[in-house]
Design goal:
homodimer; 263 residues; alpha+beta; Arc Repressor Mutant, subunit A; 7-stranded antiparallel sheet; 3-stranded antiparallel sheet; 10 strands; 37% helix; disordered N terminus; disordered C terminus; DNA-binding
DNA sequence: CGTTGCGTTGAATAAGGTCAAATAGAGTGG
DNA sequence: CCACTCTATTTGACCTTATTCAACGCAACG
């Protein structure tokens, strides 16, 4: 259950100079910390994002109780955040794709409070935190963007509470699919075809459902021609149909519910 | 359902000078933004916390879509954060007591994304945000504490997901009671007697349960002599018993589960 | 070609929601 | 002070939803 940080992965931290794509020509720039920065400001932040780190599928970027030293911008790949309950069950608390900022949970107690595990081979930009705090002093827009991204994280938590606290299983799953689709779209990728690289168990954990229930509702959506399923590739056929499910089971269907759930 | 900001409450914003207690001799200092600051640093922040505002019971400090201008430190009273679903149902996303920082959700989109409603007559310290960001540049410890409090907010969101996603109703309620008790204790008040100023409906909404279920479990805890109930005053008689409930229904009882749920 | 992990499906069961009725206080007006 | 009203709360009966337990299919991999 608990993965330890392996030497193999640690050894894969390499100076960013070895990589061509730095912030200024990174495709996720406007989703990430450098959003809105001038070229000159970009240059300052680039000098200081110290390294990019590779994390192999199934391995962890950080774990509960690891000392907090840096936050990370996902550059390539896919992560989940999770925590383990005493009885061994897993609770997935988020999914993270390129452009997302993770590790912020560690600021609070100077230790990480969850695990970040790569669901596919991934690369992250390492942002040493205390140096970052200093730099953000000198670049107000950077500071503001950091606060925006923190605030966004809290908003996602709120949306998750809303989802877990007041929706049925099928509504949760429909929200999840639309939200994933929306996030993929925000990254300029075809959003109707989702390559979910997580298991049904992980989706279920995130949505507060068992994996059997997830599977059942996926099958139900498929029967209703709202989606098609090919292993972990899901194609959304009827966005409106999924929205209808979220809106409720027939009568009360005032306004379409904007899917605000986050990762 | 939706309360509008009333003139009565708005008129109650008053310069903080009219109040004796400023940060340096505020009892919540070490829980709040000034935590760890020197007297000199305190003086700087005091000059700048512009006003304290009164919010009457049932009225809102801010509402969804209100433009974001300030964050608030609860000084006296009790708040809930909530959002309304399209069908009119309420989702309570947090409870806030003195020393808590609220309104941070607004940074993200420059508008508030939830409502903050006073559950009893309350006072908050108004912290204009852009001025605060500037000041925090000059006082690194203040900046850090702000980040810590944001991070703590995210950790609470995570804990809430854990609670909503992987616990039974009785476990959720027991977690809630222990958590409230712990937060009261952190404020130096007797923690065995809780004066909950929210309704069963609000507790239920927060915990993802109906108010009937909340009532039933409270009665069950009472029967089991774990708590005593007097309207909204609840006395915790058996902390260990509540922890047992959280740990699980009999067998698997490895380690006691630390209640990390937040408001 | 067996093993192993993931996914699907069915039947039985439990947890909690829904509906309904009764009770208890707090506040109001006479 | 009392009857009346309103809301919050408790409790019971019933029913929906999702979990649990179990069997089986399928693909990847040694």
């Amino acid at each position: 259950m608990s993965l330890s940080i392996c030497d193999e992965c640690s050894a894969l931290s390499v100076p960013i100079a070895q990589f061509k794509p730095v912030c200024s020509n990174c495709g996720w720039r406007e989703l990430c910390l450098p959003a809105g920065l001038s070229l000159e400001e970009l240059a300052r932040i680039e000098r200081f994002v110290s390294a990019r780190r590779k994390v192999k599928r199934g391995h962890s970027l950080y774990q509960v109780d690891d000392p907090f030293a840096a936050v990370y911008a996902v550059w390539k790949g896919f992560f989940k955040s999770n925590a383990y309950l005493e009885d061994g069950r897993e609770q997935v608390t988020g999914f993270h794709m390129p452009g997302d900022l993770i590790g912020v949970d560690g600021i609070n107690a100077d230790r990480h409070t969850c695990n970040a595990i790569a669901l596919e081979d991934s690369d992250v930009c390492v942002i040493p935190f205390s140096r970052f705090e200093e730099l953000s002093n000198e670049v107000p827009r950077l500071r503001r963007q950091f606060h925006v991204m923190m605030s966004r994280g809290m908003a996602r938590g709120q949306a998750a509470m809303l989802l877990l606290g007041s929706m049925y299983g099928d509504q949760r799953l429909a929200s999840f699919l639309l939200n994933m689709s929306q996030r993929v779209a925000a990254r300029g990728q075809p959003s109707s075809e989702l390559h979910l690289c997580m298991t049904r168990l992980e989706i279920g954990s995130f949505l507060g459902l068992t994996f059997e229930t997830v599977s059942r509702f996926l099958s139900k959506f498929h029967e209703e021609r709202l989606i098609s399923i090919h292993r972990r590739t899901i194609r959304i056929l009827e966005t409106a149909g999924l929205r209808n499910i979220i809106a409720g089971p027939s009568e009360r269907r005032s306004a379409y519910y904007a899917n605000t759930l986050g990762g």
